[in-house]
Task: inverse folding
């Protein structure tokens, strides 16, 4: 069960600054004491968990909070550092904004190439150049506004991100719904992206149709040629496959659940399915 769902859910083979698995001979495996606060430049902060007894290079999971929200809320809601002990886990956020047209500090701007995209990528680079991160296994997950942001990272940084999971988001390329400037911009990933998505059918914050539209977007971008749907007592699961390059798009919806209750009632399954999905999908690294 999710522990305290957030109140407002709402390149090349070596990326610059991110070492390949064979590039750097030294990297830190020093564990953190729980979730440790870190800062990134003048605009960002994040909570970081590095587990004890890491062997080799570890996968990195970046978890993005909803709009408005905070890293502490996302950590309390999903507890990725507890359920994914072999992962380095980071919960980022932005702390400042510069103009009246910009989004608030607790809300992500998932516009194409936005400052927030650059900030999250800077946090990923900072972690990956310090700790023993496997560059082929950098995954992003997000909730609501963080789900949009996770998808934007898949759009803009497919040369960094291996795969994404998201909960209760919509298409990242069609603008905002009730906040911020509608300037999202096109989604043009440099390669097909594996995506797993979750949504409640009674969601009124991000309507079901918005989520399904995002699923079809990723299926189209991935060149998926078929779909199969399995019904369950609590909803259904749709898998778009086969797709190019071994990619798959997975969509799980929960009958009668809204923006909050799907996570509250099905959090264990959502986390378990995402972790299994991340294990199946690695970014090609030469």
Result:
């Amino acid at each position: 069960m999710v522990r305290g769902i957030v109140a407002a859910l709402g390149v090349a083979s070596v990326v610059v600054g991110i070492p390949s698995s064979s590039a750097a001979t030294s990297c830190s495996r020093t564990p953190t004491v729980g979730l440790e606060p870190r800062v990134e430049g003048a605009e960002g902060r994040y909570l970081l968990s590095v587990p004890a007894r890491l062997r080799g290079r570890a996968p990195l999971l970046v978890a993005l909070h909803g709009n408005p929200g905070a890293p502490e809320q996302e950590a309390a809601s999903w507890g990725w550092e507890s359920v994914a002990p072999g992962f380095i886990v980071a919960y980022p956020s932005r702390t400042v904004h510069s103009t009246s047209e910009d989004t608030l500090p607790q809300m992500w701007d998932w516009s194409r190439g936005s400052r927030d995209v650059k900030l999250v990528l800077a946090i990923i680079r900072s972690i990956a150049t310090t700790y023993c991160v496997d560059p082929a296994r950098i995954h992003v997950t997000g909730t609501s506004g963080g789900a949009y942001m996770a998808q934007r990272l898949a759009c803009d940084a497919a040369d960094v991100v291996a795969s994404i999971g998201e909960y209760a988001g919509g298409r990242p390329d069609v603008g905002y719904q009730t906040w911020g400037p509608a300037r999202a911009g096109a989604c043009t990933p440099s390669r097909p992206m594996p995506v797993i998505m979750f949504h409640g059918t009674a969601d009124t914050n991000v309507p079901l149709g918005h989520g399904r539209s995002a699923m079809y977007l990723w299926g189209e971008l991935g060149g998926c040629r078929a779909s199969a749907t399995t019904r369950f007592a609590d909803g259904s699961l749709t898998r778009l496959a086969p797709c190019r390059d071994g990619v798959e798009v997975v969509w799980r919806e929960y009958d009668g659940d809204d923006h909050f209750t799907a996570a509250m009632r099905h959090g264990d399954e959502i986390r378990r399915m995402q972790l299994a999905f991340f294990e199946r999908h690695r970014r090609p690294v030469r």
